[in-house]
Amino acid sequence: MTRISSLRAQAIFMSPATMIGVAIVLPPLLYVLFTSVNGSALSLDAFGAVLTSALFRQTLARTLYVAGLSSILSLLLGFIVALHLARQPPRRRAFLMVLVLLPFWTSILVKAFAFTIILGRNGIINNVLSWILQTKIELPLVLNLFGLLVGMTNFLVPLIVLPVLASLLAIDGAIYRAAAIMGAKPARIFWTVTLPMSLPGLFAGLLSTFVMCLGAFVIPALLGGPHDEMLSNLVDFYNRQILDWPKASAISVILFAMAIVFATPLAVWRRRKV
Question: pTM of the predicted model, to two decimals?
Answer without folding.
Answer: 0.86
